[in-house]
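During the second year of the project, the team shifted from modelling isolated chains to modelling whole assemblies. The rationale, set out in the original proposal, was that interfaces cannot be judged from single-chain predictions alone. As a representative example for this report, we include one of the complexes processed in the last quarter. Its constituent sequences, exactly as entered into the pipeline, are reproduced here:
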Amino acid sequence: MKLKIGVVGLGSMGYGIAQSVLRAGHDTYGFDVVPEQQARFISEGGSEGILPDTATMLDAVMVVVLNAAQCEHILFGDTGIVGKMKAGSVVIACATVPPDFARDMEKRCHASGVHYLDAPISGGAAKAAQGCLSVMASGTPLAFAAAKPVLDATAETVFELGDSAGAGSAMKAVNQMLAGVHIAMMAEAMTFGMTQGVQPQQFLEVISKCAGSSWMLENRAPHIIDGDYTPRSSVDIWPKDLGIVLDIAKTANFDAPITSVALKQFLTASSNGLGKEDDAAVAKVYARQSKLALPGEDSSDVHAPGWDD
Amino acid sequence: MKLKIGVVGLGSMGYGIAQSVLRAGHDTYGFDVVPEQQARFISEGGSEGILPDTATMLDAVMVVVLNAAQCEHILFGDTGIVGKMKAGSVVIACATVPPDFARDMEKRCHASGVHYLDAPISGGAAKAAQGCLSVMASGTPLAFAAAKPVLDATAETVFELGDSAGAGSAMKAVNQMLAGVHIAMMAEAMTFGMTQGVQPQQFLEVISKCAGSSWMLENRAPHIIDGDYTPRSSVDIWPKDLGIVLDIAKTANFDAPITSVALKQFLTASSNGLGKEDDAAVAKVYARQSKLALPGEDSSDVHAPGWDD
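Output from the structure prediction step:
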């Protein structure tokens, strides 16, 4: 069945999601604060429309924004869409947000007769464009049913984690804390190894086959080995996501000391101008401190002035 | 070719190694400070002998002890074997030790005409018994050649990391710091998830398929889910191994903040009487602090008196 589906936020994830929805044959509306992104999507076959007016026509809206504040603004801000959406339509909310925020959004959507799927996503831009995301989803059976055509078009794996909002966001927070720590720890171990004569390429070859491996190690270590910090996922994602995790932890009186230290490493990277680089650039925090040259670096990097930790 | 091979240290790893060497058809001598272990191995087909006298006959000795001090005692203590070993025989040293220590042992073995392979092992007791260990090895070509029959009998994968001692131990240190941190981080994330309603079984099912996964998460999380703290690898391994890592790091002026915090979690576990439990018991540090009942626990565990962090 051909539906009218909106994707809000045409960043690297959202754009790929919109392409996947379009490819599945739906009337697909892409919305972004950057007009050029929206125009580009229309030129590829997207439907024309502007928010919030277009929202009245949509069967489903996938909200692919950066954080809770942006999500709330899209849904319930001055030009929020939920008040315009038709009864029985569904909001599919993909940002990493606190579980309590997801529960609040669900409640407010239900008050307008709109379904809400708490649906944080995982997989990166390439998987988004392929329609192969992992989605950590929770919501009512009706929310899942309404979202199904969109999930079918965009996700390879949908984890159904419960019948109300919050569970999806909780699992995403758990995943992000592990993912962020594993990136920083990969950097810590790789640079430690360099002080002992273990070269980065050898590190990856051996450790990826041993008990010290992680998904993130196998995925991010090659970026350092290639000296390629083109942001597939940027350093600045992690102060945001680990910050959310620690905010939740504080509310629960939970001490997460390893996560706290990993956050500090990303903050140091960000405060030294690496925020827009690939998150593997957290290795530079360790490298600068120990005067190590990472692959592709030279002595001007090793002795970079003004480096501040 | 049938050789005479000694295995020193018949703990969970060493016993399996000795069995694998025996199965490969060599005259195999097992030595241990616990006479019952040695007698048990003889009853399974091991050869009879005592150290250091037997050392004169051996073509290779695999030293599977806990740490550098025990290794040095075996090799060069009052009843050390190296002075007794024949020229051209080889010591295969498997403990996790500082790279400088391995280099020193190599030098002293060479002074006696004995080859030395720096050969830390990975894989656990089950793999040891199957002859399927991973070995992170470095040493001279002659040391590798002399060790080959033993490695063939015990290892599935031999990483050849360099032509002198130290490189093997360096890679092992890198692997251990990752492995230890990943265990503690798995515990941190699983218990954090519990505060948000994510049950341990669901944690494992979802995260093991997502970017937050690690080899250790997939291996150790089941121990917590099963409430089974029978030590496959004990908590007390980690203060030792992460301590070695941080000693090396200090010598290199390298700050390893994530490793340091993970060490603290294992020390807290150990100082609260969990040292002999499976290392997944580090989850109890988090659980006690947040008054969570792990699988198999009840309220007397949650409110255990005298818990000290």
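Chain A touches chain B through 68 residues (CB under 8 Å). The first strand of chain A starts at residue 4 and ends at 8.
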